[in-house]
Design a protein that fits this description.
With 193 residues, the protein is an alpha+beta fold. It contains six helices and nine strands; from the N terminus they run H-E-E-E-H-E-E-E-E-H-H-H-H-E-E. Strands 1-7-6-5-4 form a five-stranded antiparallel β-sheet, with helices on both faces. Strands 2-3 form a two-stranded antiparallel ribbon. Strands 8-9 form a two-stranded antiparallel ribbon. Strand 2 and strand 3 form a beta hairpin. The longest helix has 13 residues.
């Protein structure tokens, strides 16, 4: 192919598409010399390949920080996954935190990527989040991270504005926080419902 995903995305103006940002961490890591590749890159890449044969991938960085660029030109979908190491052991995935920027006009693509990442874990991603590391490395709050994940993972489950207003709430047994009934995890402490 010979194209660089990052340069192609810029040239095509994909950075002007609607942006959704997710935060998480990998479950597994593949080491390659001084670089590592999180399993999240592989899973997102497999999805992009399945919807677009023009898919290309590139990466930059090394050592403690790596960025992966995934472009599905025909699907008008571009993902930048930034993986930062917060600790000394690169093989320990709990030392890695990620920011996943998804540029797309189609909310369905964004929801599918969120679902794919969440399904990497048998019990979902929330119980495995490294909250303090994410907050420190990316200057983002736990509540903001949880809200975006809950929004995407529960998208489509509410059919109208009226049903949102009449919706029941559930109380977290761990911390006592009030959550929307469709939430899969507590927005305060991350406990799975």
């Amino acid at each position: 192919m010979g194209k660089n995903a990052k340069n192609e995305a810029r040239k095509l103006g994909f950075h002007h598409l609607p942006l959704t940002t997710l935060y998480g961490r990998p479950k597994k890591m593949k080491m390659m010399f001084s670089k590592y590749k999180p399993d999240t890159v592989k899973h997102i890449g497999n999805y992009l390949k399945s919807i677009d044969p023009s898919f290309i991938e590139a990466s930059s960085g090394g050592g403690r920080n790596n960025t992966f660029y995934l472009l599905a030109e025909q699907a008008r979908l571009y993902v930048e996954l930034e993986d930062k190491m917060s600790g000394f052991n690169a093989h320990d995935t709990s030392n890695h935190v990620e920011r996943i920027k998804i540029y797309s006009e189609k909310p369905g693509h964004v929801r599918e990527i969120a679902k794919i990442i969440n399904q990497i874990w048998d019990d979902g991603i929330f119980p495995h989040m490294e909250w303090e590391k994410l907050e420190k490395k990316y200057k983002v709050s736990r509540e903001e991270i949880m809200a975006k994940w809950n929004e995407l993972l529960s998208a489509g489950s509410v059919t109208s504005t009226a049903s949102v207003q009449q919706q029941d709430y559930k109380i977290c047994e761990k911390c006592g926080a009030k959550n929307i009934a469709s939430s899969k995890f507590c927005t305060t402490c991350g406990e799975k419902f």
